Amino acid sequence: MLAKEGSCGDDACPSVYLHNGALTVQAQEVGTDGLANVVSGERAVTISIDVVRRALAAYDAGGYS
């Protein structure tokens, strides 16, 4: 895990992971109406910009295992 939403404590919450060499996002699924190029098997999720920024900062700093 690179970063997670800070307000949720130890409960399940929006998070960003480094998984198999790529960023994986865990978050609430949302509808895909209005999104371009969504193909079968893909889902859309919502995550805060702050969590994404912290995840990228952790990745850039090597703060992951």
Question: What can you see in these coordinates?
Answer:
The chain has one domain (3-60). The model has no long low-confidence stretch (mean pLDDT 90). The chain has 65 residues and is of the alpha+beta class. The protein has one helix spanning 49-60, and strands at 3-4, 15-19, 22-26, 28-30, 44-46. The strands form two sheets. Strands 1-2-3 form a three-stranded antiparallel beta sheet. The protein has a two-stranded antiparallel ribbon with strand order 4-5. The protein has one helix and five strands.
| Low-confidence segments | none
In sequence order, what are the helices and strands, one letter per element? EEEEEH
Q: Mind telling me the C-alpha Rg?
A: 13 Å
Q: What's the count of strands?
A: 5
Q: What is the number of domains?
A: 1
Structural class: alpha+beta
Mean pLDDT: 90
Major beta sheet, strand line-up: 1-2-3
In percent, how much strand structure appears in the residues?
Answer: 25-35%
Q: How far do the termini sit from each other?
A: 8 Å
- Residue share in helix: 10-25%
Total of helices: 1
